[in-house]
Write a structure and sequence with these properties.
The protein is α+β, with helices and mostly antiparallel strands and 313 residues long. The chain is built from 11 helices and 8 strands. The protein is 51% helix and 13% strand.
Length: 313
Amino acid sequence: MEYLLGLAFVGEGGHTEYRAWWALDRGTERRTFEEFIDFVMDRWARFPRAYIYHFSPYEPAAIKRLMSRHGTREAQVDRLLRAMRFIDLFAVVRQGIRASVESYSLKELERFYGFRRQADLRDAAAALRRVASALELSVPAEITEADRATVETYNKEDCLSTSALRHWLEAARAEAALTSTDLVRPEERDGNASDAIAERAEEVQAVFDRLVTGLPEDRAAWGPIERGRWLLAHQLEYFRREDRCAWWEFFRLHELDTEALLEERKAIAGIEFEREAGGTARCPIHRYRYPMQEVGLAVGDKLHEAGGDGWEP
């Protein structure tokens, strides 16, 4: 259960504001996810250069999971991903700076940009465990208001700290730009799908909505007809959804640096040409070497080389 969606944003008057959506059951989880995505898309429409800054890959993974679980807001999430609107500041920190800390966690980095938390992290950890346990045991009514307030404060301070980190990194970039001309920003993308894809998505969504409208939120109350309608609705985009997940994984691997790729079983990192090992002039056999690493490749897998603006087979 993604029981809390929270974000910090620049509100009226230029002040940073915080907003949270709680969900303690699947029906509310769907509605809060839709409200969150609608809020993001509205902000993007009003501010075309808006981005979503997060720390670690969890957030976009959770967005994809919620989209697939509930079969909603697929076109909007696809557009956000195509336009590369999710910016992982953890990856930026790892690749852009060298800091005197044992780990590049958000809490460890806060000493550099002066962020001070008000909530006690030990109290927050205990409250998080109690909330997670109550949801796991299907007794959300046992979650106290005090624990909800503690968890929300923890989430709020994570969001505010991420915002402060982004401002600190921008200041460091501006300072570096005084002596370098190579600090270019990525090209802006609108993420729009083709007209044919957008039209088909609208048609499928209309059928999906007709099938699921009126289904009770409590799935325990469903009979064979309700379960059949739900299954049929989710079959509409099943194969395209599976194909989409494969492409998400493809581009996720493409964005990883060499150090991260060494930990990925779906990639070979640090590969180097060693010598020719026979074959013919038209079809030579080359031998390569690479550092020791776990690799999960099967016969017949298509290999791609990372480089430039895309992956070449």
